[in-house]
Amino acid sequence: MASDALQRELPLRPEPFDFHGVSMTKYLVDNWENVQNFETRPDDILIATYPKAGTTWVSYILDLLYFGQTSPERQKSIPIYDRVPFLEFIVPNFVSGKDQVDNLPTTPRLIKTHFPVQFVPKSFWEKNCRVVYVARNAKDNMVSYFYFSCMTLFLPEPGDWSSFFQKFLEGKVSYGSWHDHVSGWWQKKLTYPNLHYMFYEDLSEDTGREIDKLCSFLGLSPSAELKDMVVNGVQFDNMKNNQMANYSTFPAMDFRISSFMRKGKVGDWKKHLTVANNEAFDDDYKKKMKDPTLKFRTEI
Length: 300
Ligand code: PPS
What we know:
By secondary structure, the protein is an alpha/beta fold. It has 16 helices and 6 strands. The strands form 2 sheets. The chain has a 4-stranded parallel β-sheet with strand order 4-3-5-6, sandwiched between helices. A hairpin with a 2-residue loop joins strand 1 (17-19) and strand 2. The radius of gyration is 18 Å and the shape is globular. The mean pLDDT is 95. Bound molecules: 3'-phosphate-adenosine-5'-phosphate sulfate (PPS). Residues 49, 51-57, 140, 144, 147-148, 234, 236, 239, 261-264, 268 line the site of 3'-phosphate-adenosine-5'-phosphate sulfate.
């Protein structure tokens, strides 16, 4: 829950503005120069997503794969947002994401970003770092983003559902257009082989299978025991009840409004989009998503 002191001290509900053609807020670009000059290490792993596409899920999978057996203390005492810092995040009175990454004691370092591909600091490409991108179908992604915007005071005011729906379609939410984001990263895969592009829906359908694919990309061969531990640890209910994974310790989120681990489902959008929303969405989608090789499932 956001403390009253925090609410008084910070200019919460920042206004989005156009930043190099993408809708962003001050809390995401105020550290731009430092973030752009960020020095990677070759074994850094970047976890990139449009907001609410499954970042925390995949972050926790990677964290358990690398450190689940070697650092039991970490599992009990360090929240996921400190284990996998959010690179571009910069809010007064908080350590910046970039400084958090610089102070990470782990190898590899797991780093989170929501940047569209063109904003990623060049050092990641120059050092050929591994990148895991997670995409989620736009309808569920949008609903999740709406509830998250309602509860998170670092995000712009979402308005009611119908105005958020409109803003999402117009790309006027933080990080801009979902369509451009997932498509830009999909294109990157063609020229950058060290990118593993995953789908939330696949992870939901068969978590073990997707972890196997991830391990093969990362060159990991977990024991059967470790794999079972990861598959079990990252089940929705287990993460929801895990204080280190559910963000309940993070300030500036009002859990009275919604929870971070809200539904964790594919197809929840059906309870939120009206028939008119759905038609408008589908028309707009056809115009914007021209690449037939990039396919999303809105139900499984
Ligand atoms: S953030 O704030 O952008 O980093 O959020 P992100 O982690 O990307 O997305 C949060 C949504 O992912 C769901 N989630 C999961 N779903 C299924 N299984 C597991 N283990 C899981 N962990 C997180 C989370 O519930 C949010 O989706 P919604 O639809 O709102 O429930």
